[in-house]
């Protein structure tokens, strides 16, 4: 799904309609009013979807060489961390952000308080139990992230967002920056194991925010890409 520019969603330079905060990359923060914000977005989306594409997702699996993976533009700021971890607590909302060196957000990951019910080995998690979550950039030349521990599944979907404002504007990788790049259909793709094929998951691209969002049900590798 794609929400084009000017469709009435929150302006660029904000997340969920709020200005950028002063929190640092890799810092974990409790989510505030997250359910109300999501409800607002659900109510606002129908009006915006009049001009949108059909929901994406469910494409693949396809080999990586059949995809074009988004990459940072020349001169794009570095991330302040390429490998970060935090301790999530069952029964609590959790949030982690990864920032660029200039303070802008690159990635945001949010877990609902009801999401953590079992460890990857199937052992139940009770309220107050903890688990260490790791987010690693697989290759700094792409928007490609690995989430651990592998095999962790969520009882309630977690939300994954990435801001691509510093991506190379040649989205489709044909060597030219033109109107074809504006029409290039990209979103989140998932790879279960290194070397395996990729599968597209349902995601929403919000042009006004230069942002792609997806609800995910578990941990693996996720990358921003589109069909070649």
Write the layout of secondary structure elements.
Blueprint: E1 2-3, E2 14-15, E3 18-19, H1 34-48, E4 67-69, E5 83-89, E6 94-99, E7 105-111, E8 130-137, E9 144-148, E10 153-163, H2 179-183, E11 186-191, E12 199-200, E13 204-206, E14 211-218, E15 221-227
Parallel strand pairs: 1-13
Antiparallel strand pairs: 2-3, 4-15, 5-8, 6-7, 7-10, 8-9, 9-15, 10-14, 11-12, 11-15, 13-14
Description:
- The protein is mainly beta.
- The protein has one domain (2-227): Chondroitinase Ac, Chain A, domain 3.
- The protein has helices at residues 34-48, 179-183, and strands at residues 2-3, 14-15, 18-19, 67-69, 83-89, 94-99, 105-111, 130-137, 144-148, 153-163, 186-191, 199-200, 204-206, 211-218, 221-227.
- Strands 4, 5, 8, 9, 11, 12 and 15 form a seven-stranded antiparallel beta sheet that branches. Strands 1-13-14-10-7-6 form a six-stranded mixed beta sheet, with no helix packed on it.
- The longest helix is centred in the first third of the chain and has 15 residues, at 34-48.
């Amino acid at each position: 799904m794609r929400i084009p520019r000017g469709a009435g969603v929150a302006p660029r330079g904000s997340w969920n309609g709020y200005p950028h905060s002063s929190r640092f990359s890799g810092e974990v923060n409790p989510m505030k009013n997250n359910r109300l914000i999501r409800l607002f977005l659900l109510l606002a989306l129908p009006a915006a979807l009049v001009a949108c594409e059909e929901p994406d997702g469910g494409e693949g699996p396809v080999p990586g060489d059949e995809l074009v993976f988004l990459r940072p533009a020349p001169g794009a700021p570095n991330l302040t961390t390429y490998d970060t971890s935090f301790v999530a607590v069952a029964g609590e909302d959790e949030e982690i952000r990864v920032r660029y060196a200039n303070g802008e957000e690159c990635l945001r990951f949010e877990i609902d308080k009801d999401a953590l019910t079992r460890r990857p080995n199937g052992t139940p998690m009770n309220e107050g139990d903890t688990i260490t979550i790791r987010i690693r950039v697989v290759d700094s030349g792409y928007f490609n992230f690995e989430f651990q521990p592998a095999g962790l599944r969520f009882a309630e979907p977690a939300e994954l967002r990435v801001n691509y404002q510093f991506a190379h504007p040649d989205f489709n990788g044909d060597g030219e920056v033109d109107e074809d790049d504006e029409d290039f259909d990209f979103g989140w793709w998932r790879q279960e194991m290194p070397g395996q094929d990729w599968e597209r998951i349902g995601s929403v691209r919000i042009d006004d925010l230069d942002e792609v969002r997806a609800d995910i049900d578990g941990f693996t590798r996720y990358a921003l890409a589109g069909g070649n």
